Amino acid sequence: MKLTLIAAAMAALSLGACNANKQEAAAGFADSIKIVSLSGSISEVLAGAGLEKNIAGTDITSNYPEGLKAKPKVGHNKNINAEGILALQPGLVIGIKKDFSPALEAQFKTAGVKLLLVDQEFSVKGTKDLIHTLTDSLHVKTKGDSLIKVLDQDLAKVKPAASKPKVLFIYARGTGTMMVGGTGTQVEKAIVLAGGQNAVTEFADYKPLTAEALVKANPDVILLFDSGLKSLGGAEGVSKIQGIKETNAGKNKKIISMDGELLGSFGPRLGVAIQELATKIN
Q1: Angle subtended at Cα 202 by Cα 257 and Cα 259, rounded to the nearest 5 degrees
Q2: Phi, psi of 24 (to 5 degrees)
Q3: What's phi and psi for 52, nearest 5 deg?
């Protein structure tokens, strides 16, 4: 009987030591790994989980928190160049799965660089899944739980627009490039979460802006990114676009803007973004 108890105690000690070793190894991995992040939302999760110091480089959409602006930039996540990333000698590259072709994946594997590719769904659940996937994979699960808790608190403060205003999103880079957001975009998902509805439902993704489309949509609110509004000369410049003055938004001067990375990233600050949008479209 004594031998059985001793054996059980030894097994428990061995299991405890094994678990402790695993935890130490995981902590060591998270502390030492050099990461290149190829998504603004991914970079925000990493920084929020205490791994900003591990980020060796990012794509150009990774500008929050402020410290990420100083990180080496490797281009846009829609046009990934393996050579520029490999030059930073990362141990791990993290990106959105749909942005990676099989040939691109093969380049990193041939170079012996680990890839962590994740799916991103533009929803509250999708944001939580992204946070859990990243923090679990990088052995900082408790940090992920904390990020989710803050996200839930932020979302609880959202006061959706009661009147369900029709919101038209214009992606602009000067008067020469103006696109209207249709269905299925992340901006549309944000509009709905804020209590609004997309003013355009006839097509998916983006199409060039026309005066006819503006008048037909007759939005109550016109939404742009801050950078887009600036490129058009502010609200006054937008109001001069053909068709704007015929809409409810134009008549009521309801032209608003938000930081593009905050509005469209669906990262840890999603609740903050939806709070701001709901307030502005109300």
Answers
A1: 15
A2: -65, -40
A3: -60, -35
Euclidean distance between CA atoms 74 and 96, whole angstroms: 15
Task: Give me the phi and psi of 37, to 5 degrees please.
Answer: -105, 130
- Using DSSP's 3-state secondary structure scheme, residue 160 falls into coil
Strand 166-172 to strand 114-118: parallel, antiparallel, or no bridges (unpaired)?
unpaired
β 178-181/206-208 pair status: antiparallel
User: Is this structure's pTM higher than 0.70?
Assistant: yes
pLDDT in tens, 227-277: 999 999 999 999 999 999 999 999 999 999 999 999 999 999 999 999 999
Distance CA 56, CA 77 (A): 16
Name residues whose C-beta falls within 8 Å of residue 61's C-beta, 6 or more positions apart in sequence.
39, 40, 76, 77, 261, 265
Burial 34-51 (b: 16+ CB within 10 A, else e): ebbbbbbbbbbbbbbbeb
Q: CATH classification of 166-281, choosing from 3.30.565.10, 3.10.120.10, 3.40.50.1980, 1.10.3210.10?
A: 3.40.50.1980
CATH topology of domain 33-156: Rossmann fold (3.40.50)
**Integer CA distances (angstroms), 92 to 55, 56, 80, 151, 256, in order:** 10, 10, 15, 26, 39
pLDDT tens column, 180-239: 999 999 999 999 999 999 999 999 999 999 999 999 999 999 999 999 999 999 999 999
CB 135 within 8 A of CB 159: no
First vs last Cα of the chain: how many Å apart? 74
Report how far residue 247's alpha carbon sits from residue 222's, in angstroms, rounded to the nearest whole number: 9
